[in-house]
Amino acid sequence: MASLSENRAILDAFGDRVIKTARANLRKRRQIRGRSVNRVDTGNLRDKLTYNYFKRGPKIIQWFGVPESDTATRNYADVIEKGRRPNSNPKTWPPVSPIYAWMERKGLFKNSASALEKNRQAYGMAKSIGKKGIVGVYYMRDALETELRKSGKEFREFYTREILKQLRLKADKYIQ
To answer: Which one of 54, 108, 139, 154 is most buried, by most CB atoms within 10 A?
Structure first.
């Protein structure tokens, strides 16, 4: 694909639909390990989802995700999409401070708990996440599949031929 201008309207419409579906997938309640959970906390990831294009050699690639300027949200998006595998090594457990902030926002601490007790509870949650892992929700993969399925045969052939071979979902540091 040498020029984006020829197909920009088609790709922009497709990108808008994919992002809208991905946001809906993030809002959806789902059963994970027997519990009904909602994966939206502050809505930061949901609100920052976007698509754009970049040129690599003669190819123009459409990517979906969070802008490169927001590294923390990009890394968080990867964890929500793919999950986190279990690991018993304490060095690889998630950081306690974001978990502490999340527990405060959700009201998971008891009102009478001291600051030390709150830290212990947050550490326990980090330890549990480290040991059990987190189940991914595949919000972007499912959105892409849904929108490709809804699109016509001609669009699917065009997209497969021009874009899908070079699809980007992950942060640069994870791409080989």
So the answer is: 139
Helix/strand/coil for 51: strand
Tens of pLDDT, residue by residue over 65-123, are: 898 888 888 888 888 888 888 887 777 888 899 899 988 888 888 777 788 999 999 99
- How many Å is the Cα radius of gyration of the chain? 19
Instruction: Tell me the whole-structure pTM to 2 decimals.
Output: 0.77
Residue ranges covered by each domain of the chain: 1-68+138-176
Single-letter amino acid, residue 44:
N
Question: Which regions of the chain does DSSP assign to beta strands (E)?
Answer: 30-32, 35-37, 50-56, 59-65, 83-84, 134-135
State the DSSP code for 91. G
Distance CA 41, CA 49 (A): 15
Neighbouring-strand partners of residue 26: none
Yes or no: say if 44 and 37 are a contact pair by the CB < 8 Å rule. no
31, exposed or middle or buried, with CB in 10 Å at 0-12, 13-18, 19+? exposed
Separation of first and last alpha carbons in the chain: 22
Two structure tokens written together for 175: 């791409």
Copy the structure tokens of residue 39.
Answer: 């994966």
Q: 56 in helix, strand or coil?
A: strand
